[in-house]
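Sample pair:
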Amino acid sequence: MRFGAYVLGALCLSLAASVQAKVYFEETFDKEWESRWVKSSWKTQEGTDGEFVRTAGKYFADAEKDAGVKTTPDARFYAMSAEMKETFDNKGKDLVLQFSVKHEQKLDCGGGYIKLVPASSAADMPAFSGDVPYSIMFGPDICGGTKHTHVIFTYEGKNILRTKKLTSVATDELTHVYTLIVHPDNTYEVLLDLEQVASGELEEDWEFLPPREIHDPEASKPEDWDERKLIPDPSDVKPEDWDQPDYIPDAEAEIPDDWDEEEDGEWERPEIKNPDYKGEWRQKQMDNPDYKGIWEAPMINNPEYVEGSGDELYRYSDLKYVAFELWQVKSGSIFDNILVTDDVEYAKEFAESTWGAMKEVEKELFEETRAKEDEAARAAFDEEQAKADLEAKMEEFADKMDDDEDDEDDEGHDEL
């Protein structure tokens, strides 16, 4: 009876947890996707705004299920937003932001990130741009040799970048899933294709707050503090015969026969390099027995740091919109399966049922297509090479014929 009650209680707790967990935004870009998204008017007047068009791209398992939205045309700004089901306050909850992206165009310079935007920016959403305040920016950014995944949080009106760039980023032409999880204990995780690539504490990896400790500004270096690692060796004494001139008069030089002191002045021997010259003497160095290292002021508690001020770094009380605001030199990135939830397990299941269900087929099609393209390229190269060889042989044959005709002409002239 006790065991049965225990099982029932555990089941109830599990069901309660699943009921409490929420999905605030889920976008798979079906045929009605445009009714949910608002294209930004930003850059429209300048004529530099791009479009998002629905497509599954070149490699997919199911053209309908795997369809996302692609940036087009090249060298444009791409911006649009969608409203979440309800405002998300993640107090005491996990915050999960997840989406997939593939760069079939082999992205060389451009963004592939997404933003969560607060309700306070509602008035600016029709013309959403890079100047509109956001709460979180997350996803890959690639340009030349710079390749990293942005994880930017807004705190007290400032956009705070991770102190160390996250260089885990997918650069191939296949679909990849990016997941950001912010926990209510002020820790975070970043996943790439459901594999953890970064984790830690928010306060340690972002400069949200002043440091807890600082060097004591009142401290000063003691007068007897010796920072010299090496000192001159007092036992090393310069030899008495060390100092010799760099150049000396050439003892073998002789006054020229035609030298006239009245006209040419007093004759002086030319100088030559002194073979005994040893250069500047330098005293040998030795380890300093009094060396104490480079002095640093002792650490003290930072008076500007308020204890407890970082208790809710993780929290965003009014998340309301999902938005794109991108620039790409070469368009063609396909975004899909966007999710905002407080349920980490559901996010994993969602990724496995979407990206996970098609990734092997996509990879197989990609490799088959690449193999065919390589084969076609080799065939074209072989054909061009054969053509070039034939032309070379024909040219060689023509040159030989010309030489034969010239020989016959020469023989005819000789007979005459």
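DSSP finds four helices and 22 strands in the chain.
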